[in-house]
Amino acid sequence: MATNRLTRRGFLKVAGASLATGALAACAPRPAAAPQEGGAAAPKEEPQAAAAPELVYFYGTRATFKDVPAVQDEMNKILKDKIGATIQLNPIDWSAFTEKMQLKNAAGEKYDMTFTSSWANPYYPSVKNGVLADLTELLPAGAPNYWKSINPGAWDAAKVNGKLYAAINQQTWTANFGPRCPKPYTDKYKLDWEKVTKLEDLEPFWDAVLKGEPPDVKGIGCSDAGSGAVWADYFETEPPGFGLYLMSDPAAKVTYEWDNPGWVATMQQAAKWNKAGYYGKEPWPAADFAAKERAMKYASHFHNNKPGIENEMKSITGFDWTAKILVKSYLKTGGLIATMIGVNKQSTAADACVKYLEMVNTDKPFYNLLCYGIEGKHWVWVDKDKEVIGLPEGVTAENSGYNPNADWQYGNQFNAYYSDPTKVGAWPATKKLNDEATPSPTLGFAFEQEPVKTEMAQIAAVTKEYQLMSIGFIDYNEKADEYKQRVMDAGAEKVLAEINKQLEEWRAAKS
Fold it and tell me: Whole-prediction pTM value?
């Protein structure tokens, strides 16, 4: 990033014991045998070459791809030569990723690297629980080019108690909420995006879809996980772990969500849309959402619409998409830590992990091998000068042996090849959004939950019961009082006081 607006941003000090640096194991030559008492010294042995460490790497995937081993083999040919290590790719379905990683961490399972973020395999709890190695000194020393490519303010915003525990993947860091729609539906029902300035403007479109399509096609795609996370972006707030604060007010306090007019209006809107049938008869299981998406079973979905999202969605589903951003772009802590790679504190190859991070963030062909697979088998050049690739003859998004479409997860997305000619220029445009977005006034603030961990667990259990309120299957108008009372009974007052106390301390420390 070109701007230096974020360099003064820091994190709230995290209470509790400090986390020790992940251990590094040096591979040394085998020493000569000690002299035998009363006799001649034993012959010296020649130093033995250290075995190349294998970096065990866990990350998320939307589907199972049979050619992962082939891609891994190609990566290892390069890695063994360049950094003296190999990698073991271990993709886990997104629907189970967080749970499986938490089980591995709780069991003390040894591995080397993992995807971590604000939303999957959560970063802050992993730091708090001592899962991730301290990379504060390792990254600038072992991955200097990658380190220099990230704005210092972004590194600062990802630190906990002044230390860094994961490597940031460059991608869209801004909150760009809006609807995205399969283009066959917007064309068929003549949706005019110029007239869409708020979500309610889509209601005539949804009505037309429900009248004109089979009953299993929803106006709004939804799963049983609800839509709570993206709603916060719609009314320009940020949830710092509990409650909401307004990003437009530098002095804002965190409030209960039901005290925020935008949140209340959105919950009421969701109930209205559900009664109108836009969400369908029931939400899909979260694990089924991707398959329903590829089958074009919804006419719209709400998400973060970064530049080029239309072509990214096309590469996933095989059909055209349209999208629009409806809000001002903010730079939020959650966006900066939305996609990172952490090194397990138990790794004995942390130095090799950091060398790998340098490669995957600066070596464009190597990075794209992980993103798109093997040239000629999984992709071919369409326009090499513009770095546009396509699928080989006979290969589709559905039958490809390797099509993860997750370049944002692996490293610097701005080094990714374009999967469609119309996507050319998306990376500079995304970087421009990152550079020009308005920083949230609490960028870098991290709520330390330890003082209220019991209450937070109780609140989480309650809110999970009501998560379908965000898509109207639980009617806010009917259940609002019940929901508020249960959250308050779970300890909300104590939590709100604690988070505002920490926020004020954080503001005072950085002023």
Answer: 0.71
